[in-house]
Amino acid sequence: MYPRVTCNEEATMPVPAAAVFERLRTFSAVDASVGHDERAITEVFSGDTLGSVPVGTAADVEAAVSRARVAQAGWAARSAKERAEVFERYRALVVENREYLMDVVQAETGKARWAAQEEIMGLIFAARYFSRVAPKLLAPHSVPGAFPLLNRASVRTVPKGVVGVIAPWNYPMLLSVGDSIPAMLAGNAVVVKPDSQTPYSSLANAELFARAGVPKDLFQVVPGPGTVVGTAIVEQADYLMFTGSSATGRTLAEQCGRRLIGFSAELGGKNPMIVTRGADLDKAAKAAVRACFSNAGQLCISIERMYVEQSVVAEFTQKFVDAVKAAKLGAAYDFSADIGSLISESQLETVTKHVADAVSKGAKVLVGGNARPDLGPLFFEPTVLSDVTDAMECGRNETFGPLVSIYPVADVEEAITRANDTEYGLNASVWAGRKAEGERIAERLHAGTVNVDEGYAPAWGTTGAPMGGMGISGVGRRHGTDGLLKFTEPQTVVVTRFMNLDAPAFLPQDKWQPLLMTIARGIRFLPGR
């Protein structure tokens, strides 16, 4: 078990943080001895330097992909059961080293510890689910042949080859490694480009993969800018998984399209919550704090719009504002803080501008609205607005920060209409008096996942169900069977027995063809899989 990596001065540090991060950099696929530029990685809470990593180039990606192809050939030759055993060992290592992994995530992102714990839980869920289903899903299976007696047909799965993963900074461990797990279980190698601000989260898992028995070079991390490393991965990978903004997703989709390689992406969201007059307002208000402000709102599936029936909007708003005021904003490597920091100056600038723009155009700040440099360089208060209109920056655009707006609506019909009035379609939350009513509302929402009586976590954590976006919120799905099989190519093999489709010697062609048609018309196909 690795020791804690606590970076604040008040905590006990069994191993100096600098030594830990110096070790992690050795798991980068970039050879630091060849004279690369270095990028310093800072602890978000304080702005202090954690360490540095070498900045990758297009040549580094080319070399990593070349090594990955060699490793992938031997890995794909193993049975799915053998591969699953490796990831069961990895899962055990994650459980054993969960405190250490949370430390790494917090240091790089500044999120509260419970939000860091979400990442670790996601890794555990992914490793457990895909390890259990992979052997069956990847096994060859029979289907009825065109002519069942003459043809024996089977379908097998073939790995794509080298999968590129371009990961974001907001959930840097889960959204780099969580997608790599099914890709490798499917028989692929993976080359990851972590966000430049958060490379250690991927590197920490590269170390655990090595300990679990993942072959050398099968999982490679190439830190560096998207314009260089990301572009090189797109140009050389056989499939691309991306998590990030809708704008960048469009660009990557075009690049993948030119190469005719597969592409899957979870993109932005402007996610709605609906609260009906029959809902338990106390529970809704308390849960909404998590739904809106997990990772300081820097979460694609967090809530930014709340539609509340007019008859209860005043009561709900007061309960929600009180719950937000009670939430503790702070920097802590334990569970004493409810909401952590933003990650960068650019995120702080975006949130500040959205709030200022809304207020200048008539919005009212119900709680929050201010930066908190007294707590750390990038803290911003959880903020709730009313009287927001589409003319304001935060009205229809994703803020990706601790900012949410409350809108009164006349009834459920108006709530559904307004919730769906967006190009996005990633996640939604519904709070109603009866579960059946909540489910009926959920079925009418244009979103890839809908949580009834919760915000986002249950749908995200249901690893056996597909997760992804509609509209400009995504392409393809992670999780569920799709989350594994998208990393494969189906191959059909049909063996013809006894005789082929040529006319037998004793039967003329003009007699054989009508007979063949009669046989074809009479065949009753059985279901395949």
Give a brief description:
With 529 residues, this protein is an alpha/beta fold. It has helices at 17-25, 58-77, 80-96, 98-109, 113-137, 174-185, 199-212, 226-236, 246-259, 281-293, 310-326, 345-360, 393-396, 412-419, 435-442, 457-461, 480-485, 509-522; strands spanning 38-42, 49-54, 141-144, 151-159, 162-166, 189-193, 219-221, 239-243, 262-266, 271-275, 303-309, 364-367, 383-386, 403-409, 427-431, 449-452, 474-475, 488-496.
Describe the structure.
By secondary structure, the protein is of the alpha/beta class. It has 2 domains: 17-267 and 481-485, Aldehyde Dehydrogenase, Chain A, domain 1 (3-Layer(aba) Sandwich); 271-468, Aldehyde Dehydrogenase, Chain A, domain 2 (3-Layer(aba) Sandwich). Helices cover 43% and strands 18% of the residues. The protein is built from 18 helices and 18 strands. The protein has helices at residues 17-25, 58-77, 80-96, 98-109, 113-137, 174-185, 199-212, 226-236, 246-259, 281-293, 310-326, 345-360, 393-396, 412-419, 435-442, 457-461, 480-485, 509-522, and strands spanning 38-42, 49-54, 141-144, 151-159, 162-166, 189-193, 219-221, 239-243, 262-266, 271-275, 303-309, 364-367, 383-386, 403-409, 427-431, 449-452, 474-475, 488-496. The strands form 4 sheets. It has a 7-stranded mixed β-sheet with strand order 12-13-14-11-10-15-16, sandwiched between helices. Strands 7-6-5-8-9-17 form a 6-stranded mixed β-sheet, with helices on both faces. The chain has a 3-stranded antiparallel β-sheet with strand order 3-4-18, with no helix packed on it. α6 (174-185) links the parallel β5 and β6. It is globular, with a radius of gyration of 26 Å. The two termini are 43 Å apart. The model has no long low-confidence stretch (mean pLDDT 94).
